[in-house]
UniProtKB/TrEMBL annotation:
Organism listed in the record: Luteibacter yeojuensis
InterPro entries: Split_barrel_FMN-bd
Name of the protein this chain belongs to: Flavin reductase like domain-containing protein
Domain of life: Bacteria
Length: 307
């Protein structure tokens, strides 16, 4: 009764929003703050593992930095993560710093919608724990959503070698600008993870937002590899250097060599170098952002276009 009454009064805010935005736009600015310093981390932090929730950056931000997310247009603080240094990975002369997320807050919803939304989302996660592919504690999922305040692009990762071929969606990806590296966090149970570690090369297709249904269908290839390329329902083209099948209608194709991989909790963290990057078209790309960010923007009359 009480729950129904609350449901009628208080709007329901989904955990995630799937949005169609220009990949070049910077809607949210990320900054790392530590004692005595701060640095722009907008293109220099990624998620390295979901469990435990770990952030990677090329910036050495001390032992207990704050990662703050601001709306680029208004300057308003949207949310922040409190981090604790966990380790450092050295690759050639570059360093990548790993930070465990200790706490997080966001300011996208007012009272009482903020605590009610978290309560609802946590309750749903616990109810569907067995089928929830995130497989993380509710508090960590709330912190993960804060890391998605900047809309994060979805790409299709493809690889091919004798006896193994695959293409599947990823969004735990991105540049670590000051290190010159690009990272991917892949659940260690992914069927292509062992091949990726040994093959050390892959291609990224940046799909147009209109490909959303196809992209989501390809999620099953996290568990089972592609048997034959012609079983896919969309045209492919070959990447220029590695000759790996990629999405013919992609907005951008990138080829990556893997220079380092290591297990971090639930995920294998891959550090890569981009060896080619070809823009094939312009337009909106599929991105994910936190549902509370989209809710805030809608209330301000400027929601991201949803797909
Ligand atoms: C759009 C999209 C992006 C994804 N990104 C990642 C990723 O970056 N890393 C990862 O390990 N899994 C990623 N996944 C895979 C999911 O976390 C999940 O493992 C997959 O959908 C299979 O789920 P199931 O095992 O519950 O069926 C992604 C899935 C989708 C649909």
């Amino acid at each position: 009764m009480l729950r129904k009454a609350i449901g009628r009064i208080v709007p329901s805010v989904p955990q995630w929003a799937t949005v169609a935005v220009d990949p070049a736009e910077r809607y949210v600015r990320a900054e790392l703050h530590w004692e005595g310093g701060h640095a722009d981390a907008t293109r220099d932090h990624t998620v390295a593992s979901l469990n435990p929730l770990t952030i990677a950056t090329g910036i050495d931000a001390g032992t207990h930095p704050l990662l703050r997310y601001h709306d680029s247009h208004t300057g308003s603080l949207l949310g922040q993560l409190r981090l604790r240094k966990e380790g450092r990975i050295a690759v050639d002369r570059a360093g990548v710093h790993l930070y465990r997320v200790e706490k997080g807050e966001h300011y996208c919803l007012g009272w009482p919608l903020r605590p009610l939304t978290a309560w609802r989302q946590n309750r749903n996660m616990l109810r569907h724990r067995s089928t929830n592919h995130l497989n993380m504690e509710p508090a960590a999922a709330q912190q993960l959503m804060i890391a998605y305040l900047p809309p994060r692009p979805v790409v299709l990762v493809s690889l091919e070698t004798e006896g193994h071929r695959n293409i599947f969606p990823m969004d735990l990806i991105g540049p670590l600008e000051s290190s010159g590296l690009f990272s991917l966090a892949l659940r260690s149970s992914n069927v292509s993870e062992p091949t990726m570690r040994t093959l050390r090369r892959l291609a990224l297709s940046h799909p147009p937002a209109s490909m959303k249904p196809t992209v989501y269908q390809l999620a099953r290839h996290h568990r089972e590899a592609v048997t034959a390329w012609n079983e896919l329902s969309f045209p492919l083209s070959r990447s220029p250097g590695f000759d790996i099948p990629t999405v013919a209608s992609a907005l951008r194709i990138e080829e990556l060599t893997i220079v380092h991989s290591e297990a971090i909790g639930s995920h294998t963290f891959f550090l890569c170098r981009i060896v080619s990057s070809d823009g094939m078209g312009t337009g909106a790309q599929l991105h994910h952002t936190a549902g509370f960010h989209q809710h805030r923007r809608r209330r301000q009359g400027m929601p991201f276009p949803e797909v």
